[in-house]
Amino acid sequence: PGLHVSVAFALEVSVGKTNTVTALNGSNVLLPCVFTTCIGFQDLVFTWYFNSTEMIYHGKIKSKTSEPFLVGRNPRVEFVGSTTGKDNNISIVLNEVDFSDAGKYTCHVKNPKEKNAQHNATILLTVVHKMVETDNTVTLIIVGVVGGLIGLLILFMLVKKVVLFIIKKTQDRKKECLVSSSGNDNTENGLAGSKADQKVAPKA
């Protein structure tokens, strides 16, 4: 049997850390997408689809030294990326979105240099009438309470340490006093005893 060598290609497509985007009705929204490849690219084709079937942008890139050129697009879609810089950015902007634009947007890439390797990534777009402001009141209260409890715990530990230190010092002083007074009493009693013995000693 002949020797078979398998070559692993690494065409990757990414839409960022999160695959969800929320846009205000009537606004313009950025749909991010970048791709990476280990061996470079030539005559690369990229296409954006809406809900997997409707093509909204189609472009080609000759090589790393050239920017993409447009093949076809939806009139409301603009290309805002660049492929001659550090990142192979093929992001687009969808202008004046409305509620009918909500759905899945797929960024699809095919690289002939990698034996027509293909990869894609999807963004879920939600269109809203009004942006909801996040109410952080509850979060702030929780953080405040937890912070207060931690503060009280630290204070309690410090007070406990101080009290234990004072008690230890007091006990040490008491021990010193007891030893000292006990030693003095014995000495005095001994001296007194010897004097008394000398006084009552019978005469020869």
Plain-language structure description:
With 204 residues, this protein is α+β, with helices and mostly antiparallel strands. The chain has a domain at 12-128: Immunoglobulins (Immunoglobulin-like, Sandwich), CATH 2.60.40. The chain has one helix at 137-200, and strands at residues 12-14, 20-24, 29-31, 34-36, 44-50, 54-61, 69-73, 77-79, 88-89, 92-94, 103-111, 117-128. The strands form 3 sheets. A 6-stranded mixed β-sheet has the order 2-12-11-5-6-7, with no helix packed on it. Strands 1-4-9 form a 3-stranded antiparallel β-sheet, with no helix packed on it. A 3-stranded antiparallel β-sheet has the order 3-10-8, with no helix packed on it.
Set down the secondary structure blueprint.
Elements: E1 12-14, E2 20-24, E3 29-31, E4 34-36, E5 44-50, E6 54-61, E7 69-73, E8 77-79, E9 88-89, E10 92-94, E11 103-111, E12 117-128, H1 137-200
Parallel strand pairs: 2-12
Antiparallel strand pairs: 1-4, 3-10, 4-9, 5-6, 5-11, 6-7, 8-10, 11-12
Organism: Crypturellus soui
Keywords: Disulfide bond, Glycoprotein, Immunoglobulin domain, Membrane, Signal, Transmembrane, Transmembrane helix
Region (Disordered): 177-204
Question: Which characteristics define this entry?
Answer:
single chain, alpha+beta, 1 helix, elongated, 204 residues, Immunoglobulin-like, disordered N terminus, three-stranded antiparallel sheet
How does the major sheet shape up?
A: 6 strands, mixed
* CATH architectural type of the domain at 12-128: Sandwich
> What's the helical proportion of residues?
25-40%
What gap, in angstroms, lies between the N and C termini? 131 Å
Oligomeric state of this protein: single chain
Mean pLDDT: 83
Please provide the count of β strands: 12
Strand content: 25-35%
> What sequence of helices (H) and strands (E) makes up the elements?
EEEEEEEEEEEEH
Poorly predicted tracts of residues: 1-7, 186-197
Q: What overall form do the CA principal axes indicate?
A: elongated
Q: What is the CATH top level name of the domain at 12-128? A: Mainly Beta
CATH superfamily of the domain at 12-128: Immunoglobulins
- Strand arrangement, major sheet: 2-12-11-5-6-7
